[in-house]
Specification:
The protein has five helices and twelve strands. With 242 residues, it is an alpha+beta fold. The protein has two domains: 191 residues, 2-Layer Sandwich (BirA Bifunctional Protein, domain 2); 42 residues, SH3 type barrels (Roll), CATH 2.30.30. The strands form two sheets. A seven-stranded mixed β-sheet has the order 1-2-3-7-6-5-4, with helices on both faces. The chain binds biotin. The site of biotin (BTN) has 21 residues, from helix 1, strand 3, strand 6 and strand 7.
């Protein structure tokens, strides 16, 4: 499998989208030392300082219907958590849908984008932003209180190379499990790392905010939120506060 390495780019997502259109194969990854316009979910920006983290986009070509695509965000989150555990000994949590937290602060975000047409998914672009070796003052003021890096949590420099190797290893392994056995086992793994499930949460969406108990996720990765009136709501996209 190919890894494209770039010193500086606006966003590895943009490069990956371009590469996917040229027909590169399943599993191709794009890595950059720095992103000048790294992007996060909900049109936010993503701090991507030179050499401090893993700024990576992976092109997958799974043969699945479009509505199953969110499952891959969840699978990627589990792969990253396993890699962080293996390389650092830390015990990260997942906050629905895709934030990876260590001691309550975010160290990794995942952004899944799609190229699709009438035939289904042409490419899934899984963007992983992992804060590896930042110090607190490497983060912009907006995120300083909510972000962390693996170095800040372990007190030690962490090897980005080992992390990338481990993330790609688990992502490949879990993709194979997914293709052979479906989402079941992987969903259980995701739930076991999740801090959201079983908690009282507030889901901020574009038009409304709902409060309730996060009861679980569906097979499509939709969060099930039970409000005080007993109704069950499916949450597709939101910011979760706990
Ligand atoms: C989020 O939590 O909002 C998702 C952040 C995703 C950041 C990664 S870094 C590599 C890839 N390139 C980007 O521009 N974004 C993703």
């Amino acid at each position: 499998k190919t890894i494209e390495y770039i010193a500086s780019t606006e966003s590895t997502q943009i490069i990956a989208h371009q590469l996917a259109q040229t027909g590169v194969s399943h599993g191709t990854a794009v890595l950059a030392e720095e992103q000048t316009a790294g992007r996060g979910r909900m049109a936010r920006k993503w701090d991507s300082a030179y050499g401090k983290g893993i700024w990576m986009s992976i092109i997958l070509r799974p043969d699945i219907p479009v509505q199953r695509a969110p499952q891959f965000t969840l699978i990627a989150a589990v792969a990253v958590v396993r890699a962080i555990e293996e390389v650092t000994g830390l015990r990260p949590d997942i906050k629905w849908p895709n934030d990876i937290l260590v001691n309550g602060k975010k160290c990794t975000g995942i952004l899944t984008e799609l190229q699709s047409d009438a035939d289904g998914i042409q490419a899934l672009i899984i963007g992983i932003g992992l804060n590896a070796n930042q110090e607190a003052d490497d983060f912009s003021e907006e995120v300083r209180n909510i972000a962390t890096s693996l170095k800040m949590e372990t007190g030690k420099h962490v090897s980005r190379q080992e992390l990338v190797r481990s993330i790609l290893f688990y992502l490949e392994q879990y993709t194979e499990i997914y293709i052979k056995e479906g989402f079941g086992v992987l969903k259980l793994m995701w739930e076991s790392y999740s801090t959201t499930i079983g908690k009282k949460v507030r889901a901020r969406m574009a038009r409304e905010t709902l409060e309730g108990i996060a009861e679980g996720i569906t097979d499509d990765g939709v969060l099930q939120l039970r409000t005080a009136d007993g109704k069950l709501h499916g949450i597709y996209s939101a910011d979760i506060e706990m």
